[in-house]
Amino acid sequence: MRRRRLRIALLALPALLVSSVLMGAPSAGAESGQATASGQAQDGARLVRIELTGAAMLNKVNDAGFDIEHGLERVPNGIEGEAFATDEEVAQLKAMGVKILGDNEGFKWPEVADGGIPAAGASARSVQTLNHEDTVRVVRADWFTTKDQGFLYVEARTTEGAQADPVVGMQLENDSGKATDWGYARTMSRFVDSGEYMFHRNLFKLDARPHEIRVTSSTGGVTVGKVSDWLEDAPPPLTDRPGYKSNFIDGYKHPQQLYARAEEIADQYPDIAEIIYLPNRTNGYQRKAQAAIGGTGQSAVVLSSAAWGHQGGNDITVEFVERAGANLPLGVEVTGKAIRVLLATNADGAVSSTAAQVSTALETQSQGLVDRAHPYRTNAGSGIVAATPSPVKLTDSLDLKRVGAPEGEVPRGPKTIPVLRIGKHRDQSKPGVLIQAQDHAREWVPATASLEAAERLVRNYRTDQETKKIVNNTDVFFILSNNPDGANYSFYNFASQRKNMTNHCEDANDDPGRRDSWGVDLNRNYRVGSGFDGYDGASSSCTSGTYQGPAELSEPESKNIIWLVERFQNIKFMMSVHSNGGQLFWQPGAYIADGRITTPRPPLGDEAFYWQSAGRILSQVKAYRETVVTPENVGGSSDVLYSSAGNVREDLYHTYGIFAFGWEVGGSVYNPATGNWQGGSFQPVWEGDPNLVSGHSETMEYANGLMEMFRVAADWGKDKKDPKSDLVPGSGRFTRPVDVHFETNEPATIYYTTDGSRPTLESPRYEATEFREPGQVFHVTETTTFQWFSVDAAGNVEGNYDPDKNGKNFRKATITIR
């Protein structure tokens, strides 16, 4: 990321330690492809671990129809993940350059020093002289505990990290507490994405909390950083309060159950709840009836009904009839819903109709029963068709009553999506929070976690003061399933369904063998940083798991989100709830792979507010059963995961100024018995070991997090206190160049000038040194006056300064160099 050139004699200097502007005031202290009992894997498929070289290969494999979009982990050599594949598909993956990993292969955090740095034992503490020429800096060093085990996570960056020959290595050491010696040397792993150096990082288990770490590069750079606590000392969750009611959800819910309960809640609690019906109906749990006759070769014919299957398409039969006689013409007879194709013969009396000819006859002579008929996929249809032994029945193949699916018929046709709105004051006077669950059909836990949070709000409102504060001070909008058509398909037909059910495929991909691959990835269908703008992570292939659709906002489900935030402009927070992977992220969400050019990063103040909010939300997740979403899985989604072009978060933040989070619930749970982190799945068994992965436990812990997000919004709405900021060190006389930086008492964006002009909202913003890092440090070499003001996340301006007028009450400091 290129840094803006300053207009004075300043040299941008990396901050050496995490400053308060990133982490808040000092006083504030994906989904895997795992099989499930519901039968997610296709016949003959097995779970395989794979290694991809990077984002380009990930896109290539997705475009080929493999579903490996989630459950991914960024590793030094690229990306690792899981996929269900048959032996034939494994061979196809290998041919594409994908590495199939064995049981003991794959990335593991190193335990010993290597990478060109001699191994070191414990060494005495020494003082390091640090200056603006040092090439190494600590991005973050976080300590956390889970299941009575302690872990240290470190990110460090070197200005020479992009060097590939020789690769720059880093060694990490830590003490065992304040003023103890250095020891425990080990290598940090270098991470590269799309050919661009990201950072070095490491996660390892320790017996005692370190106070500081020391990082040394193989080129001689060295720096020291303090260790911070991550999610430690979290306040007890609301569920610990006497008389507090929770644990309302007893199993997975299909869309009909979710919507019915939302409407019941509105009826039962009319003083604090209501239903808003979104204006754009979905395209429906419906499909044209189809048949593929004659196999997959040049003689095969694929046909689709004009009517939806449930509206008569499923009643159509087609028969190819061979007749005795020479030189007979091709013809079509229709009796009711029965179609007979009378095949042509040649001079010898043999059938002479090709698949292409039969397709044309069916489209033009079936009396409107057949909408489309064509040769199989990319075939020319030059083969001679064969007579069918009996009539072939067309079918939409829906509502197959898959074993384990909830009882009940699935209603056909377009669906109106209800929004459950909860709040005492639903007049747009309170900050709105939008919870959007199940954009991706197969993700069942996001819906149950969202419904559990809604139940807690209404059922505790009259008896719990903290809940009353939330409901009285926020305006919460729940979309319990934003993809009801795809969700029903996941429940009743194909558990791994990701997209909606809209079929935009043309003849080459419009056959029954592709029916599980149709649809649009709703979280790739938005307008900012989209695939249509050249960003990576969305596909133009209609059968890809990340198909972006034929145009931005082509789908009713995405149009509805835009309608909602434009209609209710008090919506200031949004959580797009997904599963599973255990990440919490925000912008930037997409990048152009060539050069890794991301969408605009949030200002440092917004980034700090995201981090502060994440700490609060994830602390409440941990409070339930010690599930820790680790720091490596928090931040800009393009940094912690991969590029996802056209995602909803990007659109809502950049277009409407909404603090838009994305959440991959169901993260890894540490198992002290095995010493391993156990990953989740889209549809984990509902009841299971409460200390490991289960749908019930994930529902409860992530509902905790949603409740805390409501409290974040309520606090934001009540925040009327101006931020405070300082230039450190402040005004003074210095005999040599001096390093200065800004600090704030809360997350806030600083606007400053150094040319004597009055600071405004158009002035330069104080920026991060690099992504995931704190604010830059200025190396001042000549007398310079800084003039500035700060604005917090709630819009409060320091000192009540009005940047649009000619006020003089901005902050000012002069660094005098003599």
Automatic annotation (TrEMBL):
Q: Which InterPro entries does its entry note?
A: GH29D-like_dom, Peptidase_M14
Name the UniProt record assigns to this protein: Chitobiase/beta-hexosaminidase C-terminal domain-containing protein
Give the Gene Ontology MF terms in alphabetical order: metallocarboxypeptidase activity; zinc ion binding
What's a BP term from Gene Ontology annotated to this protein? proteolysis
List, alphabetically, the Gene3D superfamilies matched. Answer: Zn peptidases
Q: Tell me the ranges covered by the Peptidase M14 domain, including all copies.
A: 374-710
- The residues forming the signal peptide are 1-24
